[in-house]
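Notes, p. 3: input format for complexes.
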Amino acid sequence: MSSETLFTKIISGEIPSEKVYEDDEFYAFQDINPAAPVHVLLVPKKVIPAIADATAEDEGLLGRFILTANKIAKELGIAEAGFRYVINNGEQGGQTVAHLHLHILGGRSLEWPPG
Ligand code: AMP
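Output follows (115 residues plus adenosine monophosphate):
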């Protein structure tokens, strides 16, 4: 199933973004409300509404998703010092956009546990 989301509009350029990375399968851009000095969102072009909606069909995509994030973290210069990946799922998980995305956060010491 393919539907329009805020992020499909960003990927198509209908809504502007500061692009960080793009290939056939993924698009990454600066978060508009950064929670850390580095805060990039990595989005699969395929609309999977939430990580819990992923199926066996998405197994390869999800592997490439993380490997692509690793490449971006390295390119952004946060790989050595450390960083955090976050995927919010559903209302109590803090998800506000129903299109799977990975937050890549770094550039400072990050606290744990999250709020
Ligand atoms: P989540 O709460 O996990 O669904 O994350 C959604 C993220 O999208 C938030 O961190 C927002 O700051 C970010 N966001 C919303 N609109 C935009 C936009 N137009 N450009 C870039 N990031 C956005």
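The pocket of adenosine monophosphate is lined by residues 6, 15, 17, 31-33, 41, 88, 94-97 (CB under 6 Å).
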